[in-house]
Design brief:
Chains A, B, C, D, E, F: It holds the Pfam family HTHP. Chains A, B, C, D, E, F: This is Hexameric tyrosine-coordinated heme protein. The structure is a homohexamer. By secondary structure, chain A is mostly helical. Chain A contains three helices and no strands. Chain A has one domain. Chains A and E meet through helix 1, helix 2 and helix 3 of A and helix 1 and helix 3 of E.
Chain lengths: ~80, ~80, ~80, ~80, ~80, ~80
């Protein structure tokens, strides 16, 4: 399994950086729970669980901080 | 969908930076739960759930740290 | 609504920086839940909920990290 | 009320920095919930609630990151 | 027990850095709860607990921030 | 009580840095809840509570970020 798509933190734009942050968060979840149920469990949780959505958004924010620093904030 | 409004972390002022941080947090939530119910679920959660408000504020604080660094803290 | 008081992260002292961090956290909460009930909901939550106090303190700590960096730690 | 003891992040040693981090976390809690019950509520919560202890430790860790950076890590 | 595999934060690639971040998170868990049940408890928790998966992903994101900085973001 | 063992963030290796991060997290917990029950409460919590293990691992990750920066990431 690939934990970091294309094995790189380089992104051309903030939008791409944000997509990478979401991918990093998802790939960790699948690495932790690598069975066929994982995606189902996670999607169900979000469907009825706003706390889960907020908690996942926090993970994405943390990943994005790293991706943005890696790209020198696209300055 | 646009995850980063205007595809840029540049903001003229801290106030604009703060608005961007809130937008970044919201766009992640909609990316995770992209159905018509998402906004309804999230608003309901906040209406009766102070813990949800605090948790969401934490996400915004984390996003703002990145936006502020990207703008060299408007020094 | 003003998300960043005076639209600036500049603070003369750590004490002022700390006050700003608390204000930033509160303004986000009011931006998320902008009705007349918001302040009531949040105050009730704290009155009986030590976990809420700790969670809110974490948000303030995260905001303060940004404010302190913005002011070069008042060195 | 004083949010930052002595209005300074300067500490002679890591041990003093750690004490400041704990003080910063506590002062925020009292600023949020400024009544006579606050200390009682918080102490009760810790007495029977290991999750509260861990959550509070996280806040202290976050404060200490800022204090340590402010003191250039006592290098 | 080894808390840091190979006692080094150096990684050749972001993918290796991500694997290290996951290992760091796991080794802490085993250090905290060092009995034969630890792995069983943790795996059970993930099997039925999407919140646990998200919380663990947050830990990995935090570890990865350090690993990425240590490797100068593989720039 | 000593909050920072040897009153220093200097560590020869990442492994020692990791041990310090765990010690910092534990010493905070004992500072918050300084009675004879504290260690018992915390150990019980971990025995049956994977969420507690993950939350504590998050604290260690946050402490380690500071220790690693203090040691310039052992580069």
């Amino acid at each position: 399994m690939e934990l970091v798509p294309n094995n790189s933190l380089k992104c051309a734009t903030p939008e791409e950086g944000r997509q990478l942050a979401i991918q990093l968060a998802l790939q960790t979840a699948f690495a932790i729970q690598p069975d066929d149920q994982a995606e189902h469990i996670i999607r169900d949780a979000y469907a009825n669980n706003p706390d889960g959505i907020i908690a996942a958004s926090h993970v994405v924010a943390t990943e994005f901080a790293t991706v943005a620093a890696a790209n020198n904030y696209w300055r």
